[in-house]
Specification:
It is a single chain. With 185 residues, the chain is α+β, with helices and mostly antiparallel strands. The chain has 6 helices and 10 strands. It has helices at 5-9, 25-31, 115-124, 133-137, 152-165, 169-184; strands at 2-4, 16-22, 37-38, 41-50, 53-67, 74-88, 104-106, 111-113, 143-144, 147-148. Strands 2, 3, 4, 5, 6 and 7 form a 6-stranded mixed β-sheet that branches. It starts with a strand and ends with a helix.
C-alpha cells in the first residue's frame, strides 16, 4: 500500500481512491505476542495532495483473535477503524492544522506508505478487556483451589462484611466479661 508522491500529485487536486486488501498477520503477531491471529485487512479510502501534503482518509476492516481476559480462550474481535493522517513533504514549512490530535508524518524518499499507519492503528485499538459472548452473558468468574476472581462490587461487599465482623481490640476484653456474666446467671 505504497504510492509515490509523484503518482498522487498527477491527480491535480483530485482524490486517489483505493480499496486494497493486505495481510499483516506475521508482522502484527511479532509486535504483540497476545495476538493469536489476524484476518486480511481491507483498506478503503482516498489520498489527496494539497498544500505540499497528502491527506490520507481511509478505513480498515479486520478481525483479530485474542485470548479472553477471563478464560484465555480464543475470542474473535471485529474492528472497523477510521484513519486520518497527513503526510508532509517538508515538516518545517508545513502550514496545516495546529490541532495536536492531527497525525503529521514526513514523506520519506518520495513514498507514502500506509502499512505502518495500519499496523500502528490495529495495535492501538486492541481492547484491554476481551470477553467471549458467553462470558459477557454469565456472571460466573473463574476459580481454583484457594483462589477466585471477584468483581469490584463483590470485593467491596466482602470487605464491608469483614469490617462488621471484626471486633475492636479495645472492646474484646469487655465482651469476654459480658460472656462470663451471662455464664454465671
Amino acid at each position: 500500500m505504497k504510492w509515490t508522491l509523484k503518482e498522487i500529485q498527477e491527480h491535480r487536486g483530485e482524490p486517489v481512491y483505493f480499496t486494497e486488501t493486505i495481510n499483516r498477520e506475521t508482522a502484527l503477531m511479532d509486535r504483540d505476542k497476545e495476538i493469536l491471529a489476524v484476518s486480511d485487512i481491507k483498506a478503503t479510502g482516498f489520498l489527496l495532495y494539497e498544500n505540499r501534503s497528502v491527506l490520507a482518509n481511509f478505513q480498515i476492516d479486520y478481525t483479530v483473535t485474542l485470548p479472553s481476559s477471563r478464560s484465555l480462550e480464543p475470542v474473535e474481535v471485529t474492528f472497523n477503524i477510521p484513519i486520518f493522517e497527513t503526510y508532509v513533504e517538508d515538516e518545517v514549512n508545513f502550514e496545516g492544522s495546529n490541532d495536536p490530535e492531527d497525525v503529521i508524518i514526513p514523506i520519506e524518499d518520495g513514498w507514502v506508505d500506509l502499512v505502518p499507519a495500519i499496523e500502528d492503528n490495529i495495535l492501538l485499538n486492541i481492547p484491554t478487556q476481551i470477553l467471549s459472548e458467553e462470558e459477557r452473558q454469565s456472571s460466573d468468574m473463574p476459580q481454583g483451589s484457594n483462589w477466585s476472581v471477584v468483581t469490584e462490587d463483590d470485593l467491596e461487599k466482602q470487605r464491608a462484611k469483614e469490617k462488621e465482623e471484626q471486633i475492636d481490640p479495645r472492646f474484646a476484653g469487655l465482651k469476654a466479661l459480658l460472656q462470663d456474666e451471662e455464664n454465671l446467671d
